[in-house]
Design goal:
Elements: H1 9-15, E1 41-50, E2 53-56, E3 62-65, E4 72-78, E5 83-92, E6 95-103, H2 111-120, E7 123-129, E8 133-137, E9 143-147, E10 160-169, E11 172-175, E12 184-188, E13 193-198, E14 202-210, E15 213-216, E16 220-221, H3 228-241, E17 246-251, E18 254-258, E19 264-273
Antiparallel strand pairs: 1-2, 1-3, 1-9, 3-4, 4-5, 5-6, 6-7, 7-8, 8-9, 10-11, 10-12, 10-19, 12-13, 13-14, 14-15, 14-16, 15-17, 17-18, 18-19
Length: 275
């Protein structure tokens, strides 16, 4: 999937809203019945099956389908980071045909899942149902597992320990180096301060939250020499935190902080609530 500079969070939110869709008519089912009438409303994506391997879905991955006119429908959702739309036709009592529509093009840390989801949710898919689950299967046996259970609620921005797990620069997204994994973490406190580790040195700063903007004040840090992966992560975070107001977004247990100007961002996972 080609990536472009980060788009406004509002666009992703708009694309991720449920659109109306449905399936009517006999469409290969019993006369006078609605094929797949229980495949509607919001669904969480649990996982993908690709070439025999299971890819766990990020918390933001979802799909929404609701009834419309005839056998034609429209779906909206989120690949895990980018929002999308698609046209859906209920062409039998147990199959749909999906034609992808528009999608956002944010640089995302989990591109393998995004790319696999986008490739799977297209063409003719058979639908297997159970009371709380839907499985969409492609002709090659690959599949999308959906659940009607809502995803876990988003972690709060404040009073959560965030552990940095990836850095985004331009069109490139990469996990933190192995020797720095789990070392860069920070917490925003209710009193307007931030503290934690940049990967090597500890830091303290003020932190002002206004809407979806987060602004760090000057960092006060310890003075240890930092080399290798921890030093690399520390330099990236110091530059990001000092670059002015950052856009913040939380999806499930993942926080994304994005700097203004050329695409620079980090993602961090919620570790534990701070008492």
């Amino acid at each position: 999937m080609r990536t472009l500079p980060l788009l406004p969070a509002a666009l992703v939110a708009v694309l991720a809203l449920s659109a109306t869709a449905t399936a009517c008519g006999d469409g290969g089912g019993a006369r006078g019945t609605l094929p797949l009438q229980d495949f509607s409303g919001p669904w969480s994506v649990e996982s993908l099956t690709v070439d025999g391997k299971t890819l766990a879905a990020p918390a933001a991955a979802r799909l929404s389908v609701e009834r419309g006119k005839g056998n034609e429908a429209e779906a909206t959702g989120n690949y895990g980071c980018n929002g999308f739309t698609a046209a859906v036709v209920f062409d039998s009592a147990a199959a749909i045909t999906v034609s992808p529509g528009v999608h956002t093009e944010t640089a995302c840390p989990d591109l393998p899942f995004e790319t696999a989801f986008a490739r799977l949710f297209t063409g003719r898919l058979t639908v297997e149902r159970s009371p709380e689950k839907i499985t969409l299967k492609a002709p090659d046996g690959n599949a999308i597992a959906l659940s009607s259970k809502p995803p876990a609620p988003a972690a709060p921005l404040v009073a959560t320990q965030w552990t940095v797990d990836s850095l985004i620069a331009g069109e490139s997204a990469a996990s933190v180096p192995a020797d720095a994994a789990g070392r860069a973490r920070f917490t925003l406190a209710a009193d307007g301060t931030a503290s934690g580790s940049l990967g090597c040195n500890r830091f303290n700063a003020t932190a002002a939250v206004e809407g979806n903007r987060l602004t760090f004040g000057p960092l006060t840090t310890t003075r240890m020499a930092c080399e290798g992966g921890p030093g690399e992560v520390e330099r990236a975070l110091t530059e990001l935190f000092g670059s002015g107001p950052l856009d913040w977004r939380i999806q499930g247990d993942t926080l994304t902080l994005t700097a203004p100007g050329p695409a620079r961002a980090l993602t961090a996972k919620a570790a534990s609530a701070v008492e």
